Amino acid sequence: MMELGKYAGAVIGSYAASVVLIVALVALSIWQSARVKRALNEVEARQEKKNG
Length: 52
Description:
By secondary structure, the chain is mainly alpha-helical. The chain has one helix at about 10-50. The longest helix is centred in the middle third of the chain and has 44 residues, at about 10-50. The radius of gyration is 22 Å and the shape is rod-shaped. The protein starts with 7 loop residues before the first helix and ends with a helix.
């Protein structure tokens, strides 16, 4: 393991913040994808009903 000395707290904190932000972005992307997929399914169902 690297010897970080007096910067250990800052380096570890930066890594932790980066991991948290990446996980948050992935979760947000998955949530938005599910939301858009639901909306698209609703629009397609309305189109089928209208053209039915």
